[in-house]
Amino acid sequence: MTQQAITPGVLGDWQLSVAEYGDGGDAPTEFTLVRGLTEFTPPQIEKNLEDDGEFDGSPWGSEVATGISWTAEGTVKVPRASLAPDPGQEILRKAGRGVAEEGMVWCKFTKRGSTEGAEVGVADVTFVEQGGPKTDITTAELTLTGRGALGPVDTGGDGVEG
Protein backbone atom coordinates (compact mmCIF):
# COMPACT_ATOMS: atom_id res chain seq x y z
CA MET A 1 0.00 0.00 0.00
CA THR A 2 1.44 3.33 -1.04
CA GLN A 3 1.16 6.06 1.53
CA GLN A 4 0.20 9.47 0.17
CA ALA A 5 2.56 12.31 1.04
CA ILE A 6 1.21 15.03 3.28
CA THR A 7 0.93 18.42 1.61
CA PRO A 8 0.95 21.01 4.37
CA GLY A 9 -1.55 23.83 4.35
CA VAL A 10 -0.70 27.45 5.01
CA LEU A 11 -2.31 29.79 7.48
CA GLY A 12 -3.42 31.87 4.50
CA ASP A 13 -5.93 29.07 3.90
CA TRP A 14 -8.09 30.53 6.68
CA GLN A 15 -10.72 33.23 6.24
CA LEU A 16 -12.45 35.16 9.00
CA SER A 17 -15.83 36.73 8.36
CA VAL A 18 -17.91 38.70 10.85
CA ALA A 19 -21.38 40.14 11.32
CA GLU A 20 -22.77 42.52 13.90
CA TYR A 21 -24.32 40.69 16.84
CA GLY A 22 -27.57 42.63 17.15
CA ASP A 23 -30.09 41.02 19.45
CA GLY A 24 -28.82 37.47 19.26
CA GLY A 25 -31.04 34.84 17.72
CA ASP A 26 -29.92 32.63 14.86
CA ALA A 27 -26.67 33.17 12.96
CA PRO A 28 -27.01 35.68 10.13
CA THR A 29 -26.83 34.58 6.52
CA GLU A 30 -24.65 37.51 5.45
CA PHE A 31 -21.10 37.91 6.79
CA THR A 32 -18.40 40.46 5.94
CA LEU A 33 -14.93 39.14 5.11
CA VAL A 34 -12.12 40.60 7.28
CA ARG A 35 -9.35 41.61 4.91
CA GLY A 36 -5.70 42.24 5.75
CA LEU A 37 -5.07 39.26 8.03
CA THR A 38 -1.32 38.77 8.36
CA GLU A 39 -1.37 36.28 11.25
CA PHE A 40 -4.21 34.05 12.39
CA THR A 41 -4.77 31.32 14.95
CA PRO A 42 -8.06 29.54 14.23
CA PRO A 43 -10.40 28.72 17.11
CA GLN A 44 -8.57 26.84 19.85
CA ILE A 45 -10.68 24.69 22.14
CA GLU A 46 -9.80 24.62 25.82
CA LYS A 47 -11.36 22.34 28.41
CA ASN A 48 -11.74 23.24 32.06
CA LEU A 49 -10.58 20.14 33.95
CA GLU A 50 -11.42 19.43 37.60
CA ASP A 51 -9.89 16.77 39.85
CA ASP A 52 -12.43 14.05 40.53
CA GLY A 53 -10.03 11.57 42.16
CA GLU A 54 -10.54 9.98 45.57
CA PHE A 55 -8.35 10.08 48.69
CA ASP A 56 -8.86 6.38 49.40
CA GLY A 57 -8.72 5.22 45.79
CA SER A 58 -5.91 4.54 43.38
CA PRO A 59 -2.79 6.73 43.43
CA TRP A 60 -3.62 7.63 39.85
CA GLY A 61 -5.19 11.03 39.37
CA SER A 62 -8.46 11.57 37.58
CA GLU A 63 -9.86 14.69 35.97
CA VAL A 64 -13.16 15.41 34.31
CA ALA A 65 -14.03 18.20 31.88
CA THR A 66 -16.58 20.56 33.42
CA GLY A 67 -16.56 23.22 30.73
CA ILE A 68 -15.28 24.04 27.27
CA SER A 69 -14.36 27.36 25.67
CA TRP A 70 -12.66 28.72 22.54
CA THR A 71 -10.58 31.66 21.41
CA ALA A 72 -9.17 32.81 18.07
CA GLU A 73 -6.46 35.43 17.55
CA GLY A 74 -5.03 37.38 14.67
CA THR A 75 -3.22 40.41 13.36
CA VAL A 76 -4.58 42.66 10.60
CA LYS A 77 -2.97 45.37 8.51
CA VAL A 78 -4.93 48.57 9.12
CA PRO A 79 -5.44 50.83 6.07
CA ARG A 80 -3.87 54.29 6.14
CA ALA A 81 -6.06 57.10 7.40
CA SER A 82 -6.49 58.45 3.86
CA LEU A 83 -7.84 55.09 2.58
CA ALA A 84 -11.28 53.58 3.03
CA PRO A 85 -11.46 51.38 6.13
CA ASP A 86 -12.03 47.65 5.71
CA PRO A 87 -15.71 46.92 6.53
CA GLY A 88 -14.86 43.68 8.38
CA GLN A 89 -12.24 45.41 10.49
CA GLU A 90 -14.71 48.19 11.26
CA ILE A 91 -17.21 45.67 12.67
CA LEU A 92 -14.43 44.32 14.91
CA ARG A 93 -13.18 47.80 15.92
CA LYS A 94 -16.70 48.90 16.89
CA ALA A 95 -17.34 45.74 18.95
CA GLY A 96 -13.89 46.08 20.54
CA ARG A 97 -15.11 49.30 22.16
CA GLY A 98 -18.44 47.91 23.33
CA VAL A 99 -19.55 46.01 26.41
CA ALA A 100 -22.12 43.23 26.82
CA GLU A 101 -23.96 42.64 23.51
CA GLU A 102 -22.34 45.72 21.92
CA GLY A 103 -18.92 44.06 22.39
CA MET A 104 -19.89 40.86 20.56
CA VAL A 105 -19.89 39.74 16.92
CA TRP A 106 -20.89 36.70 14.95
CA CYS A 107 -17.75 35.01 13.58
CA LYS A 108 -17.39 32.55 10.74
CA PHE A 109 -14.14 30.61 10.32
CA THR A 110 -13.63 29.07 6.88
CA LYS A 111 -10.76 26.91 5.68
CA ARG A 112 -10.21 27.31 1.94
CA GLY A 113 -10.70 24.12 0.01
CA SER A 114 -12.38 22.30 2.88
CA THR A 115 -15.48 20.36 2.00
CA GLU A 116 -16.56 20.23 5.65
CA GLY A 117 -17.90 23.77 5.61
CA ALA A 118 -17.12 26.33 8.25
CA GLU A 119 -17.70 27.02 11.92
CA VAL A 120 -19.77 29.88 13.26
CA GLY A 121 -20.18 31.31 16.74
CA VAL A 122 -20.54 34.44 18.83
CA ALA A 123 -17.45 36.06 20.34
CA ASP A 124 -16.51 38.98 22.54
CA VAL A 125 -13.98 41.15 20.69
CA THR A 126 -10.72 42.75 21.73
CA PHE A 127 -9.31 44.94 18.92
CA VAL A 128 -6.13 46.87 19.77
CA GLU A 129 -4.23 48.99 17.26
CA GLN A 130 -0.47 48.66 17.60
CA GLY A 131 2.23 51.30 17.68
CA GLY A 132 5.87 50.96 16.80
CA PRO A 133 8.64 52.59 14.76
CA LYS A 134 7.62 55.13 12.14
CA THR A 135 8.61 52.69 9.40
CA ASP A 136 6.26 49.91 10.58
CA ILE A 137 2.98 49.09 8.86
CA THR A 138 0.02 49.89 11.07
CA THR A 139 -1.51 46.74 12.51
CA ALA A 140 -4.13 45.73 15.04
CA GLU A 141 -4.25 42.65 17.26
CA LEU A 142 -7.59 40.94 17.64
CA THR A 143 -8.82 38.34 20.08
CA LEU A 144 -12.16 36.62 19.72
CA THR A 145 -13.31 34.97 22.95
CA GLY A 146 -16.14 32.52 22.41
CA ARG A 147 -19.55 33.05 23.94
CA GLY A 148 -20.92 29.54 23.70
CA ALA A 149 -20.41 26.77 21.21
CA LEU A 150 -19.06 26.85 17.68
CA GLY A 151 -21.38 25.21 15.20
CA PRO A 152 -21.10 24.03 11.61
CA VAL A 153 -22.34 26.16 8.71
CA ASP A 154 -22.42 25.32 4.99
CA THR A 155 -20.07 27.24 2.68
CA GLY A 156 -21.50 25.91 -0.55
CA GLY A 157 -18.90 23.13 -0.75
CA ASP A 158 -15.79 25.03 -1.85
CA GLY A 159 -14.77 26.59 1.48
CA VAL A 160 -14.11 29.95 -0.16
CA GLU A 161 -15.84 33.29 0.19
CA GLY A 162 -15.62 36.20 -2.17
SSE topology:
Elements: E1 14-20, E2 32-33, E3 37-51, E4 63-77, H1 87-96, E5 104-111, E6 118-129, E7 139-146, E8 151-153
Antiparallel strand pairs: 1-2, 1-5, 3-4, 4-7, 5-6, 6-7, 6-8
What does this structure look like?
With 162 residues, this protein is mainly beta. The chain has one domain (11-53, 61-153): Factor Xa Inhibitor. It is built from one helix and eight strands. It has one helix at residues 87-96, and strands at residues 14-20, 32-33, 37-51, 63-77, 104-111, 118-129, 139-146, 151-153. Strands 1, 2, 3, 4, 5, 6, 7 and 8 form an eight-stranded antiparallel beta sheet that branches. A hairpin with a 6-residue loop joins strand 5 and strand 6 (118-129). The chain starts with 13 loop residues before the first strand and ends in a 9-residue tail after the last strand. The relative contact order is 0.23.
Summary, kept brief:
By secondary structure, the chain is mainly beta. The chain has one helix spanning 87-96; strands spanning 14-20, 32-33, 37-51, 63-77, 104-111, 118-129, 139-146, 151-153. The mean pLDDT is 86.
User: Oligomerization state of this entry?
Assistant: single chain
Order of helices and strands: EEEEHEEEE
Global mean pLDDT:
86
Query: What proportion of the residues form beta strands (DSSP E)?
Result: 35-45%
Number of DSSP strand runs:
8
- The percent of residues in helical segments reads under 10%
Which tags fit this structure?
162 residues, mainly beta, Factor Xa Inhibitor, 8-stranded antiparallel sheet, 1 helix, globular
